[in-house]
Design goal:
mainly beta; 13 strands; 11-stranded parallel sheet; elongated; two-stranded antiparallel ribbon
Length: 261
């Protein structure tokens, strides 16, 4: 029986109830508003669709993508989605997600959203993207995220990070309102903190080996190279991102860095 169905960008407006063995479904950019009971469905993609409500009976969902689903209700994730591991929900300005029930999440993208609840402890989260997030509580990240390795918070309103991010390897926070770094993020390899409130690193980072670091240079000298370890092949770059040429080179470098993931 049919296990994978992709009807993205089609004119189909209703799904049959007979696809009970379906495991992957993509209804992106369609006018479909509801999804039947597909008990074995694991992957669901609804990006830019007219979906209004997610089916409570899809209890095996592990991957859910709801980018820019403007017709969804305020709290769209049913409490029965306890197996959910990957949630992509950017460009949803009016939804409010209760993260307390999503304890199995490993990857979460909620960029360009207005989130009114703080992010609860997510013990299995390894990747978090909150780019351009607008939140009334600037201490949005309050919980415990012991497995978090990559955090992107570009142009976000978050001002403070919690301690305990001991496995974090990559932090992309340029143009955010971040004011300081926790002293215990000593697994960091890639650090991007241009145009933030951060003017210096904690003392605990003095002898830390970064692969690449870029932050505002208070001395106004372009591309100053700082070697924290003379015997280390790794290079740390501090740049003045108020300079257009430097900024251009920075984004070129960022593109190279991101290409390895």
């Amino acid at each position: 029986e049919l296990e994978n169905l992709n009807i993205c960008k089609t004119q189909i407006q209703e799904l049959p109830i007979t696809f009970i063995k379906l495991k992957t479904l993509d209804i992106s950019q369609t006018s479909i508003t509801t999804i039947p009971n597909y008990p074995e469905l694991v992957k669901l993609y609804c990006n830019y669709s007219k979906i209004k409500e997610l089916n409570n009976n899809l209890i095996n969902i592990e991957i859910l993508s709801i980018h820019s689903c403007i017709y969804l209700k305020c709290d769209p994730i049913p409490p029965t989605y306890i197996k959910l591991k990957y949630l992509y929900a950017s460009d949803n300005w009016d939804i409010m997600i209760d993260f307390s029930k999503l304890k199995q999440l490993e990857s979460l993208v909620i960029s360009r959203s207005t989130v009114t609840k703080y992010l609860d402890s997510l013990e299995n989260l390894s990747y978090l993207c909150i780019d351009e997030i607008k939140n009334s509580d600037t201490n949005f990240l309050r919980g415990s995220y012991p497995k978090l390795k990559r955090l992107s918070m570009v142009a976000s309103s978050v001002r403070k990070l919690p301690t305990g991010l001991i496995k974090l390897e990559s932090l992309y926070a340029y143009f955010s309102k971040l004011e300081e770094l926790p002293p215990d993020m000593l697994s960091l390899k890639y650090l991007y903190i241009e145009n933030t409130g951060i003017t210096k690193l904690p003392n605990s980072y003095k002898n830390h080996k970064f692969t690449y670091i870029s932050m505002d240079n208070q001395d106004e000298e372009e591309n100053e190279v700082v070697n924290f370890h003379d015997d280390s092949p790794k290079i740390t770059t501090v740049c003045n991102c108020n300079n257009r040429t430097t900024k251009s080179r920075f984004f070129q470098k960022l593109k190279q860095i991101l290409s390895i993931f």
